[in-house]
Specification:
Blueprint: H1 2-8, E1 9-16, H2 19-31, E2 37-40, H3 46-52, H4 59-85, H5 102-124, E3 148-153, H6 161-170, E4 175-180
Antiparallel strand pairs: 1-3, 1-4, 2-3
């Protein structure tokens, strides 16, 4: 019976009343060796992002790749139409008149970079996610109003239910709750 409960456990979440309390709790959790942490607050807290050390994103690399692909595609399209598919001698200019290709190349670069930014962000964030396990916690709706939550996920290598619960309770939260799938 207990194994069934552990298999359905997403993690443990602690509720805090102030931004300073959750920042301190996140720092202590990272120092204790927990790595699969998420924090939820009604507004962005810069110190919290640094305390969680979650600011390693792959989105800039995706945007760069999209921009390079867009520039290559835009220039290639102009080159193909002007030099290969439909060459026209207008005013004695060469078929490969690259200055005329710059506006299309620029616009394709911006288009592909912005699309890769949006789609990459959605994919890396796992969105759309119509239901997250934290929505099963009754008080979690307060995360968008005036409470702060720190969740340690069960997939963390250091996670052990009773020890993690004791650790979170030692951080003096208002409440510690189980998060089930």
């Amino acid at each position: 019976m207990k194994l069934d409960h552990v298999a359905r456990l997403y993690g443990l979440v602690a509720e805090f009343d102030t931004p300073a309390a959750i920042v301190a709790a996140a720092k202590e959790a990272r120092a204790a060796g927990y790595r699969n942490l998420e924090a939820y607050s009604p507004f962005p807290i810069e110190e919290l992002a640094h305390a969680l050390d979650n600011h390693h994103s792959k989105v800039p690399y995706l945007v760069l790749g999209g921009a390079i692909a867009g520039a290559t595609l835009g220039f290639g399209l102009c080159y193909w139409t002007s030099v290969i598919a439909y060459p026209m001698n207008i005013g004695g200019r060469p078929f490969n008149s690259w200055p005329a290709f710059i506006p299309v190349t620029y616009e394709c670069t911006i288009l592909f970079a912005s699309l890769s930014a949006v789609l990459g962000m959605l994919a890396l964030n796992g969105l759309p996610e119509p239901h997250h396990p934290l929505f099963n916690v009754d008080r979690f709706s307060l995360a968008s109003r005036d409470k702060y939550f720190l969740c340690i996920e069960a997939k963390d290598p250091k996670f052990e239910t009773s020890q993690t619960r004791a650790f979170l309770q030692g951080l003096r939260p208002s409440e510690v709750s189980d998060v089930e799938y």
